[in-house]
Amino acid sequence: MSDRLECKWWYFAPTRRCNDDSQLQRWSTGTQISAAEKCKRPTKGDGNFRESEKKRAGVEDRVKKLEQNETTHTQSRCLEDQKILLLKLKVEFRFDPLASRKLVIWNENEDEDCCSWDGVECDGAGHVISLELDNESIYAGLENSTSLFSLQYLERLNLAFNNFNNIQIPSRLYNFTNLTHLNLSETGFVGQIPVELSSMRRLVSLDLSNMYTGNQPLKLENPDLKRLVQNLTELRELNLDGVVIAAHGRNWSRILSSFLPNLRVLNLRQCYLSGPIDSSLSQLHSLEVLRLDLNNLSTTVPDFFVNFSKLTTLSLGGCSLRGLFPSKIFQVPTLQNLDLSYNFLLSGTLPQFQLTRSLRIMVLSSTNFSDSLPDSISNLKMLSRIELNNCKFSGKIPSTITELTELIYLDLSDNNFTGLIPQYPMLKKLTYIDLSRNRLTGSLSSAHFEALSNLEYINFGHNLLTGNLPSALFVLPSLQKLLLSNNQFDGQIEEIPNPPASQIKELDLRSNNLQGQIPKFLFKFEQLNVLLLSFNFFNGTFQLEKTREIRNLSSLDLSYNNLAIDLNVNNSTFSFFPDIKRLKLASCNLEEFPEPLQHLNLSALDLSANQLKGKIPTWIWEINNRSLTYLNLSFNQLTSFEKPYSIHSLTILTVLDLSFNQLHGELPIPPPSSAYLDYSNNNFNSSIPADIGTYTSRASYLSLSNNSFTGVIPTSFCMAYYLLVLDLSNNALNGSIPSCLTENSGGYLGVLNIRRNRLSGNIPDSFSIGCRLKTLDLSHNSLTGNFPGSLVNCPLLDVVNIGYNRVEGTFPCMFMNTNLRVLVLRSNRFHGELQCPGAIQEWPKLQIIDISVNNFTGDLSPSYFLNWKGMKDFNYDGNEGHKGLRFDFLKLNEFYYRDTVTLTIKGLDMELKKISIVFTHIDFSRNKLKGKIPDSIGHLKSLYLLNLSSNAFTETIPATIGNLKQLGSLDLSMNRLTGKIPGELGSLTFLSFLNLSFNKLSGSIPLGRQLQTFSADSYEGNAGLCGFPLNISCNSNKMDGVPPMKFENGHFQRKTEIDLDYIFAALGYGTGLGISVLLLLFCPNWRERYFDEVDKILLKIFHKQRGRNRRIGAGVPRNQIRRL
């Protein structure tokens, strides 16, 4: 789960109730709920639900204005027939008397005046003119024969937030010819809206919203929108949220503007409307509130919204809007609430704001808005809520934001903000602040939090913050969540001798550089529920006994520190322990299974990366009465299972990770409820059970890789319909690939990896339409036959690797113009030309292509590389660069599968365990390509490795190769290239490997600081070449080719580039191989840092620094899962 989210609904719901207008909170798509807010879907029993919406939208004021225009009725004693009708109505309605506040107190007492009953209003003659029965828990009794329809003088009827359990709206509503206000919102009505409603010509307000109740929708198809509203010309407020409206394109706009010219409030959220928004809507001159969220409008935002001079609320969240947002809309003088969230293609910038006291809520989250925040944001004096998360804003957070004294909620997370965090002494009303996932620097001081007594939620995680943590953070009186993970905070947390009572429920300090002992004051936080301290340098001894003082503690993570864990607990005291549900003790130097844990009611246990040896004890499967949902024992030295064991009896175990141990023998039957199963990197040596699919029918991830499994791939895998990742790589499986695996590719399967086995036969050509594969790796087998053309049905593919087989076919032009990133056809029997007739040679994202050791022939056209956009420009995103190429799944828990690929670099077969998105590679070697190397190769300015060796290329080396400033390896050997070596190659200062041998090159090797740094082997076999480093002089009077020397820092310098040998050594080759392998195998904490360093080296080569150096998770950069 994300650090800052408790829940997220794709509905509009009030995030909290407000006590006054200064605390307005919004309804919004995917509202992110603070720690103080209840993660609760609104229900019909919530008496303040609709009131909360009215306050936020400003509807209440407008309703009052409308009431002032109505006739004022003098309350009189009700007539007897009216009282009888009301009492009959009470009997007819079925409701919950315990939840009712009005109906339940109506009674037959003769002295009771029914006009004084709650929910009832009468006119001067004693007729009932208003019934307000919202939130009365009515669940039946509204039929065409009910007494309700005999109340002929009714002007107002409100039955909102009851539940009539999927019945149709009664058609007898037409009896109410005097009705001006009808509210049937969230009442569980379904089906077609009756045409009779259109006869209520006096209606001023109509609310049929149906977004939260009922399994079936309300519909407006026959009659359609036009027939409903064509007679309702007095209508001022129309609320049809959640109603399926059969009006598309421009029709709905024109209908509303034609028949409802006086409309002030229009709510059409989630009505299945389409765009564009027609200009006729601009005729609604009185419009004050417009909400169109969750419709697929797929259009631009029209400029005419600026002309709505009374507009107070504009809400367009989740409408698939695109293009540039008209910035003048921000300046509409009456605008109070603006929501454009979840329009990912909508771009724009914030204008220079003029002084205004109107705008209160500004929500632009998950849009493409960019640029900096203007200092003039301080002119929005009434602004109480700012949500700009998940955009592309950059620059510094303006200090003027601290002048927004009404600010309650501030979310600037997931942007590119830099610089220091401003101090907020004047924001005394602030309750929520989220600045996470930016690039903020500097330290925190006590001054940042002075006077913030109302602050409930702080999230500064995933930044570059440094220094000590101020003690003031931990004593804020209202603080409930403090999230500071993935920064660079260091030092020891200062003790607080007598800490005041704390409200902190969640404390996340993971992935920092904190040192010393865990402070004692944390154990006095009685409300503390979640304590996450992993990936720091805390030391000393942690005694589990201490947690008895934190009675509410349910989640504890101490992984990856320097702690000694003392789990010795007196059995008699377990009844006083907190009810810990999640316990993570990865890399805590445990040498044996801590038996006291069997007495805890755990649902999640992580003991990975310790020194546990021998058998897995039986009791671990019995924890909490077999109610474990998560168990991670990976990266230990476990060999077997203590018998009897019953993994399959854990009926709710969702995650089981036994990878990287020494388990052997037969594969244990997996638990039937598992979503994630990892048995990889063990010594299992049996066949895979034929019925394994029956036990993995609910699994999303299954890895049996890097074992010694034999036999065939069971066809029962095809029963595991929900599999997203199936990894059987690096085993000894034989036989053919079951055709059902490809026939079922239209299910959920995203990764199929069966590389490095002994499979034979054809690749099934049965990939189904709607195929969702992103990674297909069949390499290093003995597969034959033709390349499957049905892969054209898999448009989501990122990686296709069938290298090292005996597959035949022509170049797969089907992947042109797709998002494919990696294509490896190496060492097969492909033939024909690389040119795709009649097609534009465009590869939008291709970064690695290896088609070497085949029989491709023909020339490459001069423009061949012109549209290889994936290698043209180097656009590095720090976060994406760190992740590498991967497949995300089970995203709520941040699980992902990481792709690998084996490439030949400098003559070595090297397996890249992590494919960085900045790594680019072209290998066309050992084919029969001829003609001139296209000059368009010079457009690939982010190209890193180029190998065109062992072909029949002729003519000269293109001088445009000198444009490839990121090039680290160039191999043009064993061709028929002629002419001189272009001097431009001397400017390739990052070039670490060069091979031009065995061509027909002539002339002198160009002088410079680069080309003379390579050995003579790079140039041998070219009879006409001369100059250093060859022992052939071009001029008898002097030695050619000696590079110019430069005196710097007290000695001569000749070479300034970063040597690729260093990088390749970091990948597992070179003199440090033995030590590196041992550390990689047995020290996962070191391994994570090691590969992070490799990332930094690679990114420096591309003139970029990594955005940060994070230590993430307990896994390793490998072809499998990591958990954050």
Automatic annotation (TrEMBL):
Is the keyword Lipid biosynthesis in the record? Answer: no
Tree of life domain: Eukaryota
Q: Which UniProt keywords apply?
A: Cell membrane, Glycoprotein, Leucine-rich repeat, Membrane, Receptor, Repeat, Signal, Transmembrane, Transmembrane helix
Recorded topology in the membrane: Single-pass type I membrane protein
| Keyword Repeat carried by entry | yes
- Which regions span the lipid bilayer? 1062-1082
Q: What's one GO-annotated cellular component?
A: plasma membrane
Q: Which GO terms describe its biological process?
A: defense response; response to other organism
Q: Which residues form the Leucine-rich repeat-containing N-terminal plant-type domain?
A: 80-123
Q: Which InterPro entries match?
A: Leu-rich_rpt, Leu-rich_rpt_typical-subtyp, LRR_dom_sf, LRR_N_plant-typ, RLP23-like
Q: Where in the cell is it found?
A: Cell membrane
Q: Where is this region: Disordered?
A: 37-60
| Stated family | Belongs to the RLP family.
Q: What is this protein called?
A: Receptor like protein 6
Organism name: Forsythia ovata
Instruction: Identify the taxonomic lineage of the organism of origin.
Output: Eukaryota, Viridiplantae, Streptophyta, Embryophyta, Tracheophyta
